[in-house]
Amino acid sequence: MSKNIPSKNLLLISTSTTYGTGYLEHAEEEVKALLAGKSSILFIPYARPGGISHKDYTAKVREALQTWGISVTGVHEYDDAVKAVNEAEAVFIGGGNTFVLLRNLYANKVIMPLQERVQKGMPYMGTSAGTNVAGKTIGTTNDMPIVHVKTFDALQLVPFNINPHYQDPTEGSTHMGETRETRIAEFHHHNRQPVVGLREGSMLRIMGDKIFLKGPLSARIFLQGEKPMEFEPGDDIQFLLEAYW
């Protein structure tokens, strides 16, 4: 896959809901910007948070987005998932279990169609697991591997990994287990690509060959062999797109 494809249009959100807000409400401005000029979106509910049915998950998304003038159809409502992706105005992949999601993306043969459509400019939005699979691999997900996947290779829409729901150690905690930072350091003993720790309420906006951190919080970025770095919204994080392909 070549780098710096000028037509990419992505919104990668840490979580669909923040404390005290409705579904996608905290990301409303960015969602509307992503979908400007579009009237419909294809929802892929394969991650099934809590085991929710595809029908009920899609209904939840439909209820939220229809208030913004966007109609929602679920990919499971089509006989041919590939055809659905190829004809979609935009695609949204929701959160849930990343392993379940990736297995179903491969099983329904939509990995390559999604990659091809995104490269040509189709808007792509992900939350949580849907953000995880936008990266190079799912090796930095927090989810339990409740199903077997044949590969960790994901959609590779960006040349780095993401850790949605990134959490900092709680000050004064007596917890002696691993922190997120520890686990990402372990990842970098075996993998080269950067990892973006995306805190709740934060999101990455990719437009063409530009990338921006959106939301109220900083992101913690990890590079192999270097100390973790904090970047605030508005800081230059362009290096994330300029290497590691």
From TrEMBL:
Keywords attached to this Swiss-Prot or TrEMBL record, sorted alphabetically, are: Dipeptidase, Hydrolase, Protease, Serine protease
The protein's name: Dipeptidase PepE
Q: Which EC class does it fall in?
A: hydrolase
Matching Gene3D superfamilies, A to Z? Answer: 3.40.50.880
Q: Name one GO molecular function term.
A: dipeptidase activity
Q: Which SUPFAM superfamilies match?
A: Class I glutamine amidotransferase-like (SSF52317)
The keyword Lipoprotein is annotated on this UniProt entry? no
What's this protein's family per the entry? Belongs to the peptidase S51 family.
Q: What is its EC number?
A: 3.4.13.21
Highest taxon above the source species = Bacteria
